[in-house]
C-alpha cells in the first residue's frame, strides 16, 4: 500500500485506503493489488478521487480509474485505445475511440508485468501530449 502523503483525514490516498477497507472482500484486495502495481510502475503517480468516489491515478493527465462493481473491478484507461496491449489485457469498452478497460472478476489475477508496462505506456503517452505552458514564448 502506498504511503499517505498527508495526515489529512480526507486526503485522496486516505479515501482510497478507506474504500479498500470498507469493501472487505475480493474487490478490495484486487483494488489494493492493482493500486500497488500502479505505484510500482510509476512512483510519481498522483492519486485523486473524482465523480462518485472513484479512485483515479494521474500523471500529466488521467492514467486510469478504478471503478467497483458487484461482479468486477474495472480499470478504465482514459487513452487506452492509443496504448500498445500485446498481452491483450483490455477486455472491456473495446468499441470506443479513446478509452479501454480491464474488468477483473473474482478469482482472476492480472499479469503484473503486462499491467505495469501498460501503466508506463500510459504515462509516456500523457507526457508526450503534455504541452509546456511556456512553449513558443520568448523572454
Question: Helix and strand layout, with pairings?
Answer:
Layout: H1 12-23, H2 26-41, E1 46-50, E2 54-58, E3 62-68, E4 73-77, E5 100-104, H3 112-129
Antiparallel strand pairs: 1-2, 2-3, 3-4, 4-5
Helix pairs in contact: 1-2, 2-3
Description of the molecule:
The structure is a single chain. This protein is of the alpha+beta class and 139 residues long. Helix content is 33%, strand content 19%. The chain contains 3 helices and 5 strands. A 5-stranded antiparallel sheet has the order 1-2-3-4-5. Strand 3 and strand 4 (73-77) form a beta hairpin. Helix 1 runs antiparallel to helix 2 and helix 2 crosses helix 3 (112-129). It starts with 11 loop residues before the first helix and ends in a 10-residue tail after the last helix. Residues 1-7 and 134-139 have low confidence and may be disordered.
Amino acid at each position: 500500500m502506498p504511503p499517505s502523503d498527508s495526515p489529512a483525514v480526507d486526503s485522496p490516498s486516505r479515501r482510497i485506503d478507506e474504500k479498500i477497507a470498507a469493501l472487505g472482500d475480493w474487490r478490495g484486495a484486487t483494488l489494493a493489488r492493482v493500486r500497488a502495481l500502479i505505484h510500482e510502475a510509476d512512483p510519481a503517480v498522483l492519486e485523486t478521487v473524482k465523480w462518485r468516489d472513484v479512485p483515479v491515478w494521474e500523471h500529466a493527465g488521467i492514467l486510469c480509474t478504478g471503478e467497483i462493481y458487484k461482479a468486477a473491478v474495472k480499470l478504465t484507461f482514459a487513452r487506452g485505445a492509443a496504448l500498445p496491449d500485446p498481452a491483450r489485457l483490455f477486455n472491456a469498452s473495446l468499441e470506443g475511440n479513446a478509452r479501454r478497460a480491464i474488468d477483473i472478476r473474482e478469482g482472476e489475477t492480472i499479469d503484473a508485468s503486462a499491467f505495469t508496462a501498460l501503466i508506463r505506456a500510459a504515462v509516456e503517452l500523457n507526457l508526450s501530449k503534455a504541452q509546456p505552458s511556456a512553449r513558443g514564448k520568448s523572454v
